[in-house]
């Protein structure tokens, strides 16, 4: 029995999760590999070949690595759990005029809970994933995520929803390394093909990146139900007709199929009236927003006016802001205007490199 403990490692078959498992195994942990099947592409109605985390080749790659290094591996089918929450949330959010982030929802509500449940059944002390982040414990006893050292790969943004019981048992061994280091480790472990393996950035259940087509397949009669709504300007003046409010996102410029003699952007979506507001690029600027469904990490709350760097999307560099408790959530007031705040996306609050907490951006400051 390992003196370091027993760890259940989520293995997708990709380089990051495979190196995570092999690294922990080499460090003396008793490793159990598990590959979670969240989706199959036959259900999406696309002809595209399966790629990413939910295909047979990836399952076989993960199993082969486990067999070669002498630790057990299991495949866990969580399609029902995944579809019943992540996909329904994805559809519901677009129908509510918001832009969802399914990877955050999956991490928060499905993957980590599924891992912990199976870890308990297998008497594992820890769970581990190949995410680029670092888990620390504050002097106040609370666990929190810090940014990984590789800023280009840091995934702390998508981990804001993890609660204390999950964080206390999670290992993120890649957080202290750069991606180039991980590729070198794959070579040293004897997996040159893995070191060259392409990464997938798609939503697993929308493999062709056509979320509009996915919505049409999932919601019977949606296209007919929402077609013919109005494009309007910020005064309410009708500019033209659109294809239906769920098929647009805040900040969208391309694919509007409307000619106004200048570039225009989607600045607001009003599902109640099937209205899409268009404006100039500067109309996307906002100085504040409301955030709900908060999960605190480093602290169990905030003092009003607390300063933080707030990120409103995954690749956002973040903007300085003050945080205030309001309406059961957090009101964020930015030092300077930020562009393209999209309801439904995650807002994540940082103190330096440390994640204070996060939540879901709400629709606020309506124009109409």
Which keywords apply here?
368 residues; alpha/beta; Rossmann fold; SH3 type barrels; 5-stranded parallel beta sheet; 26% helix
Characterization of the model:
This protein is an alpha/beta fold and 368 residues long. Among the domains are: 6-130 and 172-195, HUPs (Rossmann fold), CATH 3.40.50.620; 220-279, SH3 type barrels (Roll). Helix content is 26%, strand content 28%. It is built from 9 helices and 17 strands. It has helices at residues 15-26, 56-69, 79-95, 102-121, 164-167, 179-188, 192-195, 211-218, 222-226; strands spanning 6-10, 30-37, 73-77, 126-128, 133-137, 143-147, 170-171, 230-232, 238-241, 265-270, 275-279, 285-296, 306-311, 319-326, 329-339, 346-351, 354-361. Helix 3 (79-95) packs antiparallel against helix 4 (102-121). The protein starts with 5 loop residues before the first strand and ends in a 7-residue tail after the last strand. The model is unreliable at 44-52 (pLDDT under 50).
Stretches where pLDDT is under 50 for at least 5 consecutive residues are 44-52
Q: Sheet with the most strands? A: 6 strands, antiparallel, barrel
The termini sit apart by: 64 Å
- Which H/E pattern describes the elements? EHEHEHHEEEHEHHHHEEEEEEEEEE
Any idea what the CATH superfamily of the domain at 6-130 and 172-195 is called? Answer: HUPs
**Strand segment count:** 17
CATH class category label of the domain at 6-130 and 172-195: Alpha Beta
Shape type: globular
What is the level-2 CATH architecture name of the domain at 6-130 and 172-195? Answer: 3-Layer(aba) Sandwich
Helix amount: 25-40%
